[in-house]
Amino acid sequence: MGVAWREKWVGNVLTPEDMVRFIDDVGCCTAKQMPAHPHFPNQDDVVAPGARDVWFWKDDLHAEKRLYYTRVFGGEPGFISVEMLPAFVATNGATVDELLYDGLLSVEAQEIHRIIEEYGPIPIRDLKKMLGPDTRRAANRILQELDRAFIITKSGITGRTRGTYGFIWELTERWMPDVLAAADKLGRAKAIPIIEERLAQYGVAPGSAFYAKVLGWA
C-alpha cells in the first residue's frame, strides 16, 4: 500500500520543476516523513542528493502559485497541488465570521487578522511591531492557526540571507480568490471523498483517526 510514489519519485527530485511535478502527481505531501504514517508522501524522501536551494523551493513555488505551502498537516510543513487545493480549502478552510460566530477566534487572532487585512501583504517583522505584547508572544502559533484555516497565507519572503529572511503575510481571499471561489463551488460534501480517495492510496483509510488528528476534521 502506498509504495507506487516511492518507486517513481524517491531520489528523483533535483529541481523546482521536478518538485512541482511530484506534488502534481501525489496531490499533497509533508516536508518530512510522518512516523505514524510512513506511506504518506514527503519531500525529504524524494529530493535527490545535490539538489540546490531546496530551502527556498517552498517560498518560490508557493509565491509563483505553482503549489501551495501550508501547515495544514497537523501543524507540520507540507505542500498541496493546485488541483487538490480547492478540496482542502473546502474541508479545512474557514472564514473569520464563522470562527467569530462559533467563538473560536481569540482576541489576539482578531488583532493579527485585522492588521493583515488593513496593511497586507505585510512582512512578519512589520506585523509583529504593530502587535500588543500578548499577541506578539503568541504570534507564531496564531499565524499557523490562521494559515491552517486558509484565512491567511504567505505571499513571499523579505530576503534570502539570515538577517533578511522572513515571510510576507496576506489574506488568502485576496491572494488566491479563484481558489476560494472554486472551494465554495465544490463544497465540503463533495470535497471530502476527493481527499479520502487520494489519501487512501497512501494507507490513510477513509474515516480514520488521521483526519481528526492530522487534518483537524471534526
Walk me through this protein's architecture.
The chain is of the alpha+beta class. The chain folds into two domains: 4-92 and 187-213, no CATH class; 97-174, Arc Repressor Mutant, subunit A, CATH 1.10.10.10. It has helices spanning 4-9, 16-26, 43-46, 54-63, 85-92, 96-101, 107-119, 124-129, 133-137, 139-148, 172-175, 177-186, 188-200, 210-213; strands at 28-30, 68-73, 76-80, 122-123, 152-157, 167-171. A three-stranded antiparallel beta sheet has the order 1-3-2. A three-stranded antiparallel beta sheet has the order 4-6-5. The model has no long low-confidence stretch (mean pLDDT 96).
> How many helices?
14
Outline type? globular
The proportion of residues forming helix, as a percent range, comes to 40-55%
Give the strand content.
5-15%
Strand order of the largest sheet: 1-3-2
- For the termini, the CA-CA separation is 26 Å
